[in-house]
C-alpha cells in the first residue's frame, strides 16, 4: 500500500485519469438531464452514484495490473505476510482514491444539478463512504482474480456491477431521500444500515475467498 | 447417478409433467384473479428450483475453492446453467401474471429487483465460464458464492418491505387456506425438482466426459 501511494504521488496517474473520467461523466449527464437551466427531478442522486461506480471501475483496473510487470505479483504473494494483508493494502488504496474522486464529483454535482445539500449533509458522506467500502471490497477481489485471465477489462464491469447493484441501489435511494425538499433522515438511516449490512457480508466474503483464489 | 436411476427419474418426470395440466385445470379458481392465478403452479416452483440451483452452485463452488475438487466445479457449472434456465421461467411467467394481476408487466419493487440481480449474476457466471479462459474456474467459484450470499436478501426482501408481491408466508399456509390448490402445487414442485435432478445429472455427466476426452487428448499428444 505504501508503495502504491508512493508510485501514485510520483506520477498522479490514477488520480488524474480517474478524476478526469468522473468529471466528464458528470458533464455528459448534465447535458442529458439539465434542460432549460432546470435539472430533471431527482437526477442528482443517481448521477452522483453512477459517476462513482464508473470511475471506481476505472480505478480498479490498474490496481493489480501494475503488479503484472516483471512478475511482481508472484513476488508480492511470496512475501512473508498474510495474503489478507495484501488484500487490505490494495483495498484501502482503492477506498482512498475513490474518496478523493468523490470529493470533487460531489461538489460538481451539487453545482451543476442545483443540489447544495450534497456538500452540506454529513449523512451523504456516510452513505458514500459505506458505498466505497462495499464497492472496493468486491472490486479489489475481482480485479486481483482477473489479473491472470484474458479480456480483463471487459470482464471486470460484467462481474462487478451485478454483485454491487444492491449497494448502489441502497446508496442512490438513501441519497435521494436526503435530497428531497424535506430530507427524510429515517429512510436514509435505513438505507445506510442496509449498506452497512452489505459491506460486512461483502468484505467478509472477499477476505475469506482471497486466500484460496490467489494460490496457484 | 447410474443409468437405471436416471432413466427411471426421467420417466417419472415425464409422467408428472404430462399429468400436471390436468390437475391444474381441476384446481379451484382464485376468487379475485380467476384463471390467471393458475400460472402460480409453474411460477413458484420455477423460482424454488432456481434458488435451489444457486445454492447447489454456491456450495459446490465453495468445495471446489477450498478443497480443489474438479467434480464439484463441474456440478457448480451445471447448476449455474440450470439456475439461469429456471430463472428465465420465473421471469417469463412473472410478468405474464403481473400484467393481469397488477396491470403492469414490471414493477421495480424489492423482490423483483433482487431476482433480476440474481439472474444477472448467474448470467455473468456463465459469461465468465465461456470467455474467461484458463484459470477462470476459481473466479467463477467466487462469483457463485457471492450469488448464494444474495439469496437471503432476495428471500426476505418481501417480508422487510411490505410490497405488492405476495409474501413468502402464502405458500406454507396454502395447505390450510386452500387445500384444493395445495395438491397441484406440491405436484408441480416435485415435478420441477425431478426435472432439475435429471438435467443436473445429465449436464454434470456431459461435463465430466468432456474433461475425460480432454485428458485423453492430452495423453495422446504427449506420446
How is the secondary structure organized here?
The complex is a heterodimer of chains A (216) and B (223).
Chain A: H1 2-11, H2 13-33, E1 34-35, E2 38-39, H3 43-65, H4 72-78, H5 83-112, H6 117-120, H7 122-146, H8 152-179, H9 185-214
Antiparallel strand pairs in A: 1-2
Helix pairs in contact in A: 2-3, 2-5, 3-5, 3-7, 3-8, 5-7, 5-9, 7-8, 7-9, 8-9
Chain B: H1 3-26, H2 40-67, H3 70-101, H4 110-131, H5 136-160, H6 174-177, H7 179-222
Structure notes:
The complex is a heterodimer of chains A (216) and B (223). Chain A is an all-alpha fold and 216 residues long. Chain A has one domain (2-214). Helix content of chain A is 82%, strand content 2%. Chain A contains nine helices and two strands. Chain A has helices spanning 2-11, 13-33, 43-65, 72-78, 83-112, 117-120, 122-146, 152-179, 185-214, and strands spanning 34-35, 38-39. Chain A has a two-stranded antiparallel sheet. In chain A, a hairpin with a 2-residue loop joins strand 1 (34-35) and strand 2 (38-39). In chain A, helix 3 runs antiparallel to helix 5 and helix 8 packs antiparallel against helix 9 (185-214). The longest helix of chain A has 30 residues, at 83-112. Chain B is globular, with a radius of gyration of 20 Å. Chain B has a domain at 38-183. Chain B is built from seven helices and no strands. Chain B is mainly alpha-helical. The chains are: A mainly alpha (216), B mainly alpha (223). The A-B interface holds A 138, 141-142, 145-146, 148-151, 154-155, 158-159, 161-163, 165-166, 169, 201-202, 205, 209, 212-213 and B 65-66, 113-114, 117, 120-121, 123-124, 127-128, 131-136, 138-139, 142-143, 145-146, 149-150, 153.
Amino acid at each position: 500500500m505504501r508503495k502504491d501511494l508512493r508510485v501514485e504521488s510520483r506520477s498522479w496517474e490514477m488520480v488524474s485519469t480517474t478524476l478526469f473520467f468522473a468529471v466528464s461523466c458528470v458533464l455528459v449527464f448534465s447535458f442529458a438531464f439539465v434542460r432549460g437551466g432546470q435539472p430533471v427531478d431527482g437526477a442528482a442522486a443517481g448521477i452522483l452514484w453512477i459517476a462513482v461506480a464508473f470511475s471506481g471501475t476505472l480505478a480498479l483496473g490498474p490496481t493489480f495490473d501494475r503488479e503484472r510487470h516483471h512478475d511482481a505479483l508472484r513476488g508480492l504473494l511470496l512475501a512473508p505476510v498474510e495474503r489478507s494483508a495484501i488484500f487490505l493494502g490494495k483495498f484501502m488504496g482503492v477506498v482512498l482514491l475513490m474518496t478523493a474522486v468523490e470529493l470533487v464529483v460531489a461538489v460538481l454535482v451539487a453545482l451543476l444539478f442545483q443540489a447544495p445539500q450534497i456538500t452540506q449533509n454529513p449523512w451523504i458522506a456516510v452513505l458514500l463512504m459505506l458505498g466505497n467500502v462495499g464497492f472496493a471490497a468486491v472490486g479489489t477481489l475481482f480485479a486481483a482474480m482477473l489479473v491472470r485471465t484474458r479480456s480483463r477489462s471487459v470482464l471486470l464491469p460484467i462481474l462487478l456491477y451485478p454483485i454491487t447493484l444492491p449497494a448502489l441501489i441502497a446508496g442512490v435511494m438513501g441519497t435521494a431521500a436526503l435530497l428531497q425538499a424535506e430530507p427524510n433522515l429515517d429512510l436514509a438511516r435505513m438505507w445506510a444500515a442496509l449498506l452497512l449490512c452489505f459491506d460486512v457480508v461483502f468484505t467478509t466474503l472477499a477476505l475469506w475467498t482471497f486466500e484460496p483464489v490467489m494460490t496457484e | 447417478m447410474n443409468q437405471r436411476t436416471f432413466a427411471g427419474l426421467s420417466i417419472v418426470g415425464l409422467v408428472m409433467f404430462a399429468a400436471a395440466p390436468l390437475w391444474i385445470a381441476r384446481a379451484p379458481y382464485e376468487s379475485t384473479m380467476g384463471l390467471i392465478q393458475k400460472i402460480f403452479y409453474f411460477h413458484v416452483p420455477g423460482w424454488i428450483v432456481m434458488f435451489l440451483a444457486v445454492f447447489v452452485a454456491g456450495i459446490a463452488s465453495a468445495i471446489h475453492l477450498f478443497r480443489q475438487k474438479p467434480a464439484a466445479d463441474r456440478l457448480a457449472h451445471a447448476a449455474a446453467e440450470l439456475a439461469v434456465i429456471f430463472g428465465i421461467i420465473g421471469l417469463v411467467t412473472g410478468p405474464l401474471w403481473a400484467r393481469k394481476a397488477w396491470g403492469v408487466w414490471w414493477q421495480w419493487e424489492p423482490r423483483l429487483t433482487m431476482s433480476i440481480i440474481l439472474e444477472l449474476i448467474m448470467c455473468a457466471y456463465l459469461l465468465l465460464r465461456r470467455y474467461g479462459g484458463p484459470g477462470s474456474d476459481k473466479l467463477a467459484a467466487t462469483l457463485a458464492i457471492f450469488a448464494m450470499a444474495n439469496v437471503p436478501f432476495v428471500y426476505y426482501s418481501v417480508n422487510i418491505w411490505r410490497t405488492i408481491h405476495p409474501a413468502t408466508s402464502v405458500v406454507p399456509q396454502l395447505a390450510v387456506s386452500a387445500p384444493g390448490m395445495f395438491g397441484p402445487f406440491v405436484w408441480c414442485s416435485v415435478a420441477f425438482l425431478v426435472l432439475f435432478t435429471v438435467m443436473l445429472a445429465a449436464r454434470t455427466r456431459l461435463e465430466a466426459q468432456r474433461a475425460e476426452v480432454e485428458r485423453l487428448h492430452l495423453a495422446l499428444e504427449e506420446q
